[in-house]
Amino acid sequence: MSVLTPEGALERAAEAGIHRLRIPTPFAVGRVNCYLLEDRPLTLIDTGPNSGKALDELQGQLKERGHSIDDLELIVLTHQHIDHLGLVEILVEHSGAEVAAIGVAAERLANFSEDAESEDEFAVQLMLRNGIPSEVAFALQGVSRSFRGWGSKAEVTRPLADGEDVAFRDRTLQALHRPGHSPSDTVFWDAERRILIAADHLIAHISSNPLIARPLDGSPERTQALVTYIESMRKTREMPAEIVLSGHGEPIVDHVALIDDRLVKHERRKEKIYGLIAEQPRSGYEIAQAIWGNVAVTQAFLTLSEVIGHADLLVNEGRVREVDDGEVIRYETAG
Ligand SMILES: [Zn+2]
User: Fold this and answer.
1) What spacing in Å lies between the alpha carbon of 59 and ligand 1's midpoint?
2) What is the CA(74)–ligand 1 centre distance, in A?
C-alpha cells in the first residue's frame, strides 16, 4: 500500500479534474485555494477576494488550463468569508454562471453590505460586553470596514440543502453543511473518489478559527461557534475521505489524525481556561490577555472568539457560569 503525500493528493485530484488555483489575498492568511472543476458544468469552487490582482491571477491560472472567465458555468461558494467569494459578482457578470451555496446563507450573501455592517456592530457589542476596551473594539471595527471592499454580494441562483447531491457529467458532489469556522461552512463530498472539498472547515497548517458570529437565521443570540465546530469536525472524522482539499495550504491525507489532534488541543486549552477562571473570576478579555498578552489586543476578536468558544464548552458542562454585572460578562466556577 502506497502512502499518499499532499503532493500526490494534488496530482490525484488533478487526474479527477479538480485543479487547485492559488489566488492572492491581502490578508494574513496568504493565498486562498479555489478549485477548478473540469466537468460539465465547468465549475469554480470559491473565487478569491475582490481585487484586480486576484482577478488577474485567476484569469492567468484559468488560461493555463485553456479556459477563460467567460467559460465558467457554475460558481460554488463554500462560506461567507470575503477571501473566498469577493470576485463572485464580477465573474457572474462576465460568464453568466449560476451561483450555488448553502441555502440558509443565501439571504445574507445577497445583502452583503448591510450584512457586513450588522456583523461589525455585533462584533463591537460582543467585544465591549466581554471587557475589551472601547478604543480597541472601535479600532477593529474600522479595520474590518476598510477590508469590506474585498468582498461582494452574491446572488445565489442555486440554493443547496444540507445533504443535497449536485450532479455533474462525470461526478456527484454531496453538499454538507459543516458550520463552526463560519455559520455557512459547506463541504463537498465526492464519495466515489473519496475526495472532500472542505475549504476552511479543515486546514492542515492552521487550526480554523471558530469565529463567533450572528446565526444565519437572524436570531439575536450569538453562535456557540466552537461547540458547533467540534460537532462538525466529529461528523467529518467519520467520513472515509482519502483526500481533503482545503481553502488554504496543502491537501490533508490523514484527516482523522488531524481532527484527533485538534480535539486534544481544544481540550487542553479548555482546561487551561478553566484553571484561569478557578483562580479568580475573569472577563473574556482578561482570559485572552492572560493567555496571549498583547496579541489579545491586536487580534482582539479572534482571541476573544477562542476564549468564548472554550468557555461555552465549560458552561455547557456545568463547570463555569457567566456573571453579568450589567456592563461586562465575567466567568466564574459553578457549583
Ligand atoms: Zn474563512
Assistant:
1) 22
2) 20
Contact (Cβ atoms closer than 8 angstroms) between residue 204 and residue 6: yes
Strand positions, DSSP E, the chain: 18-23, 32-37, 43-45, 74-76, 98-102, 158-160, 165-167, 172-177, 186-190, 195-199, 243-246, 282-283, 320-324, 329-333
Helices (H), 208-280: 225-237, 255-279
> How far does the centroid of ligand 1 lie from the alpha carbon of residue 238, in Å?
23
Mean pLDDT on 224-238: 97
Q: What is the pLDDT of residues 300-315, one digit of tens each?
A: 999 999 999 999 999 9
Specify whether the CB–CB gap between 62 and 55 falls below 8 A.
no
User: Quick check: 251 pLDDT over 70?
Assistant: yes
Instruction: Kindly give the distance from the C-alpha atom of residue 85 to the centroid of ligand 1, in angstroms, as a whole number.
Output: 10
If phi over 0 gives left and psi between -120 and 50 gives alpha, with beta otherwise, what is residue 77? Answer: beta
- 316 CB contacts (<8 Å, ≥6 apart)? 224, 227
* 32 C-alpha to ligand 1 centroid (Å): 9
Q: How many CA atoms lie within 13 A of 158 on its CB side?
A: 15
- Span 117-161, pLDDT tens digits: 999 999 999 999 999 999 999 999 999 999 999 999 999 999 999
- Whether the ω angle into residue 41 lies within 30 degrees of 0, i.e. cis, is yes
- Per-residue model confidence (pLDDT) at position 2: 59
Report the predicted TM-score, pTM, of the whole model to 2 decimal places: 0.95
